[in-house]
Amino acid sequence: MSNYRVQGATGEWEVVIGLEVHAQVTSNAKLFSGAATAFGAEPNTQVSLVDAAMPGMLPVPNMECIRQAVRTGMAIDAQINRWSRFDRKNYFYADLPQGYQISQLYHPLVGEGAIEISLDEKDPEGAVKRIGVERIHVEQDAGKLMHDQHPTRSYVDLNRSGVALMEIVSRPDMASPAEAGAYLRKLRAILRYVGSCDGNMEEGSMRADVNVSVRRPGDPLGTRTETKNVNSVRFVMAAIDYEVKRQIDVLEEGGTIVQETRLFDPDKGVTRSMRSKEDAHDYRYFPDPDLLPLELDEAFLAECRASLPELPDAKRHRYEGLGISPYAANVLTAEVEAARWFDALLETDAKPVAAANWVTSELFGALNRLGRSIDDSPVSPTQAAELLALVADGTLSGSLAKQVFEIMLETGDGAAKVVEDRGLKQTSDTGAIEAVIADVIAKNPKQYEQFKGGKEALFGFFVGQTMKAMGGKANPAVVNELLKKALA
Fold this sequence. Notes:
Largest sheet: 9 strands, mixed
Shape: elongated
Number of strands: 16
Mean pLDDT: 92
Strand content: 15-25%
Low-confidence stretches: none
Structural class: alpha+beta
């Protein structure tokens, strides 16, 4: 799909990218305890004895977390492993009370799947690329160290300790920053449709580890670096861009790339070295003796499958089948809230194409201007349907509909009430329109003579003057028809 190349001082380079996305599972409790997971709570107020690793505490799997991970795997058409196992990943750090993280190295819950991406928003059916997903495993998050609360001490907050994460590991199938951005946006949309993660990257409930290497076209894979915990699509693309240029500079100067873990500084737009990259054997993985393997039966899998909603690609194809343009369908399905709002509008029997055009231009434009989300829209799908119906039956012209919509945004009133209260109904009264046309021609004799002399472009001038004289309330089609007769 991508012929992306980066030109170095000594020739062209290819880029190879893989992403490991950590997505916090939507659940009312942690992976192995009943502690709450609400964002923004006071430090160390959401910590059970299990999360704090008190002696004798035993983990118990939260089956809702397992269910959400399975549903996510099904949404990307991945292999669901009926038998999976938890492993201990051993390392010492102050925000990891147990001295190990419970994860899944050898037998993950979800195996191979794929996500389709498109780089052209205007033509989502055009250049499509499948990005392989190697696995999805569930694991617990660590706590958080805070170094800026005291001049000489570091504090630890264990609220996140034990929070359930899905680690979604892609194959190194992406070849440009744009492809990585498209993959991350698509994955986030799928997670939010499924409801398994809220996708809120600002709050840390979805973050990406970015693996990047470069090579000469056709050469074997180069040595990769991993940039940890990047928390926005824009920053992921910027981190890749910087890291690619840095690696090429190192190699072209005769140096070698060190396999290491790096951090991205969003303020400076650079990555910097954090530590040498560990391999799996450094963590001394072994099966967790406190947890039995997970064994999933057919009834559980059937329930997971039945609970899946219509996913973004299927919804987009359905919209296109209604005559909606691929671009508009893509815009309407990019965020789950917008798609739900539009589905509610379609349920009112609104005309699909007119509704799609109005939502993507008028509604989204207004919400953007007001700084509001579609969940917070002052106009409901039912009110929008009422407005569109008044346009369809000729009660409102396009310009009057814009006026009515602005008043609806301000007042929260329905379209019919606004039309009635403000007298904004479009008129098709031929007698009234003919009288205004006669007056307009009488007041503009020079333009009339020029039109009669062959300057036909002035027809638009007479249409505009007539509409202006009638306060935009005349039916444009009737005005055009009557003007043609009057000017003939």
